[in-house]
Design goal:
eight-stranded antiparallel sheet; three-stranded mixed sheet; Putative xylanase fold; globular; alpha+beta; 355 residues
Length: 355
């Protein structure tokens, strides 16, 4: 049977600006799909491109639905006014993914897990690590991909599911609105620059929205201070196909970098990561861990979800390591993980507000 062709019908929000161009450099550091972060859990190096065909990987998937995010999974053509008053926004999601999202949310409502972030993070273990899944042909749109994840989309997916479950929400439309709010400035899609590329942008915006809060105490272990100097994206447009194809967008990315540059945040230095009561007070199960890097122009290099084992703190993450290339619950302690990578200098801690 012939593969289904990606629908050309676009439901556009008022004022949405489309990005152009899809050329991918032959080789580049592996940026996560959502951020300017180098998604690097390879020891002591920036990982090379993994050869993903990015947008082609999605466009070749059977049965992709591109429609209004107010539609539910039972009827892709069904449309209704947006509950948040922001109008319809186009999105890309397979029927299989929409069914799984609603199934996971129903399970959470029925089972009422004590820690929703861990519940969803473990439900998504074993999924292939794939970078650039948000980079689709045509203009910027809300991409949902449950089957292929990188460190940012894995964490963001778990966060969106957790926030929905905390409010007893179980529909695809609820999930899409939450994901869009997490991923874009003011929860609205206005082209590629409106996506929250640096994780500090993501933290700032979603703190403002009351969805997360950054933990910066007690001291110790929060004894170090990070001063943001984000410029990797604007200085290296060749690594981002939208920027390479549309140099005019670089000024908007630079403007967003300047919004966070100079801001200061308390963090836990690598030397203080251990299995002790100070750390257990600072980092809770289900917290988002943002790993800081000494690499120039970046705020973070990798993100994941915290989970305590009897031997110490561990990390749930989408691993780009060649030996894994999937979402995993690390068997090594987080201390061992951090010590294996010289450029990782410490962590910031972000807590999802799920009550």
């Amino acid at each position: 049977m012939r593969k289904a062709i990606l629908a050309a019908v676009l439901i556009l929000a008022a004022g949405t600006t489309a990005c152009k161009g899809n050329k991918q450099p032959a080789a580049s550091p592996t940026q996560t799909a959502n951020t300017g972060v180098i998604d690097n859990d390879e020891p002591d190096k920036i990982s090379e491109t993994d050869g993903n065909s990015e947008a082609d990987r999605i466009s070749e998937t059977d049965g992709i639905s591109e429609t209004d995010e107010n539609a539910d999974s039972s009827s892709a053509a069904k449309q209704a006014p947006a509950a948040d008053g922001k109008g319809s926004q186009k999105y890309l999601c397979t029927p299989e993914d929409s069914i799984e999202i609603e199934s996971l949310l129903r399970q959470a409502k029925e089972q009422q897990p004590e820690n929703k972030m861990l519940f969803f993070a473990r439900k998504l273990l074993g999924r292939p690590y794939v970078a650039h899944t948000l980079e689709t042909p045509g203009g910027e749109q809300l991409v949902v991909n449950m089957k292929q994840l990188d460190c940012t989309t894995y964490t963001e997916t778990c966060t969106a599911l957790t926030l929905c479950a905390a409010k007893g929400k179980t529909t695809l439309g609820d999930y899409l609105k939450t994901l869009r709010t997490l991923r874009y400035y003011d929860g609205e899609i206005h082209g590629y620059p409106s996506r929250l590329h640096y994780f500090t942008e993501w933290i700032e915006e979603n703190t403002k929205n009351g969805l997360v809060k950054e933990v910066q105490a007690p001291e110790p272990p929060f004894t170090a201070t990070q001063t943001i100097d984000a410029h990797f994206m604007s200085a290296n447009p060749q690594y981002y196909r939208q920027l390479e194809a549309n140099p005019a967008l670089i000024k908007d990315i630079k403007k967003n970098e300047n919004k966070i540059n100079g801001k200061k945040y308390k963090y836990i230095p690598k030397s203080l990561l251990g299995n002790n009561q100070l750390m257990k007070k600072a980092v809770k199960d289900g917290d988002i861990i943002a790993i800081l890097t000494s690499k120039d122009g970046l705020d973070t290099s990798h993100i994941g979800i915290a989970v305590w084992h009897s031997d110490g703190l561990h990390l749930l993450n989408a691993s780009s390591l060649k030996s894994r290339k999937k979402t995993v619950e690390e068997t090594m302690t987080f201390k061992q993980y951090m010590d294996s990578q010289k450029t990782n200098i410490g962590i910031r801690v972000i807590r999802v507000i799920d009550n």
